Amino acid sequence: MGEKDIERQAPNVARMKMLGATVVPATSGSKTLKDATNEAIRDWINHPQDTFYIIGSVVGPHPYPDMVTRFQSVISKEIRSQLKEKVGTELPRAVIACVGGGSNAAGTFYHFLDEPSVDIIAVEAAGCGVQSGMSAATTQLGKPGILHGSKSYVMQTADGQVVEPHSISAGLDYPGIGPIHANLFVTGRGRFLSATDKEALEASFELAKLEGIIPALESAHALAALKQLKFEKDENIVICLSGRGDKDMETYMKELNKK
Ligand SMILES: Cc1ncc(COP(=O)(O)O)c(C=O)c1O
User: Fold this and answer.
1) In this structure, are residues 131 and 155 in contact, taking their beta carbons and an 8 Å threshold?
2) Residue spans per domain, the chain
3) Is the Cβ–Cβ distance between 86 and 164 less than 8 Å?
4) Contact, 41 vs 51, CB < 8 A?
5) What are 127's strand-pairing partners?
6) 74-87 and 64-72 are packed helices; what angle lies between their axes, rounded to 10 degrees?
7) What's the count of helices (H) and strands (E) in the chain, helices before strands?
8) What CATH fold (topology level) applies to the domain 66-258?
9) N or C: more exposed end of the chain, with fewer CB within 10 A?
10) How far is the CA of 242 from the centre of ligand 1 (A)?
11) 92 lines ligand 1 (CB under 6 A)
12) CA-CA distance, 232 to 235, in Å (whole number)?
């Protein structure tokens, strides 16, 4: 795990340690997700006899993006079943999810990919603003390239060097997207929006006030995108709340202290 993320996601690190994991800090580059992925793959290829590589996002070499997408597809299976039960139809007007590497989004979209009436909306982290030089909005800033063993969209310089991303949320602070999302972007099947750090924070506080739910900072990006969209009153919109905000309380507390 990136050294910076060990700090900003401290409660998750404590949980992993309690459950018996050894957490090794990745100290290269920006000390975040990209660097942790580099180090994990580096360790794996140096110790292939006794290392089993696993990843939680839809990035990395084949078959990982495909495997993780299929595992996460329980999300859209569950959405269909709950919608059927609660509103009598399995198909919402739109499904919205944040994209770091894109696993919660891939799972949310999977069983709607062949349903053209359902809008697929992916939300990337704009960080301090898409053009600020501190952003992780890969489809807007990236070009086709190869990162961590798969061809996709990657934020890179003209020489193909990876550009350091920025997002307030550790999970979206990544300069690529899974190949499934690059495909949704290029084919136009998915619509790609972005939300800034500030908009995500505002959305978290709004959800907490209105619904009593404290979302993960990553999920808050998906919520923030609602302000950029227009729907009819009776349309069903599903937003994936990919995680709880417990792990982000330190960031939320800093924000509260500014108010
Ligand atoms: C709560 C939460 N949501 C979303 C993400 C982004 O990952 P992905 O894009 O693979 O869903 C992360 C990553 O750590 C996360 O912790």
Assistant:
1) no
2) 3-53, 66-258
3) no
4) no
5) 196
6) 20
7) 11, 6
8) Rossmann fold (3.40.50)
9) C
10) 7
11) no
12) 6
Please write the tens of the pLDDT for every residue from 91-147. Answer: 999 999 999 999 999 999 999 999 999 999 999 999 999 999 999 999 999 999 999
From 75, 103, 139, 181, the mutation candidate for ligand 1 (largest count of ligand atoms within 8 A of CB) is 103
How far apart are alpha carbons 56 and 51 in whole angstroms? 16
Binding site membership of 99 for ligand 1 (Cβ less than 6 Å):
yes
Q: Is the CB of 218 under 6 A from ligand 1?
A: yes
Which atom of ligand 1 has the smallest separation from the CA of 216?
1
Ligand 1 neighbour 241 (Cβ under 6 A):
no
Average pLDDT for 160-167? 96
How far apart are the CA of 170 and the centre of ligand 1, in A? 8
Name the closest-CA residue to atom 7, ligand 1: 100
Which tens digit of pLDDT belongs to each residue from 194-247? 999 999 999 999 999 999 999 999 999 999 999 999 999 999 999 999 999 999
97 CA from centroid of ligand 1 (Å):
10
Instruction: Give the H/E segment covering residue 196.
Output: strand 190-196
Q: What is the pLDDT of residues 22-68, one digit of tens each?
A: 999 999 999 999 999 999 999 999 999 999 999 999 999 999 999 99
